[in-house]
User: What shape does this take?
Amino acid sequence: MESDKHIPWKDHAFSMATLYSILTAMVGVLLAVIITDKEINSHWYWPVGLLSLSFIFLIWGVEKLSDALDENDVDKYMTWLLAYNTGVILMFFGFAAYIFLHYHLGSSNLIFFLIIASLASLKWICDDWYLLFKNNRGYAVYKSELMGETKNPVKDVDRLMKCHRWIRKLFHRSDDK
Assistant: This one.
């Protein structure tokens, strides 16, 4: 008899697989566009290489997600989140490289596009950093949250949520009085 216990990593796995597949398809379409683009004659290998690696990492991520589900292995799931995160990061950098080369922007603009790609992929960079370097206690807490063993997991308040709260407080102080 199976338990009715809520196990977040398994409960949301099919949504994650769908997301992985959509991102993989987007990268595939982008690769098809880039390969046929006559505007990026030189240095075409940067966006094609980055997006090809992204494609491979995203495919590995979805494949290993299904393996983790079949084997009921949360450790495998957590390990292969690295592949998914890396695939997303490479997608942003590949897209930035393509825009930079397609529009023949000067080399002085390269730093701007690298900063934009870094900011766009910051969430996934931080996730990879966490999965690789978080101390054992923090990693164990995250694993217990994924397994549904923690009743009230700590919510990750990101920068956008902090900004939203700050704006709400700033503009709606008079409503509280």
Q: What stands out?
A: The mean pLDDT is 86. Residues 93 and 117 are 5 Å apart (CA to CA).
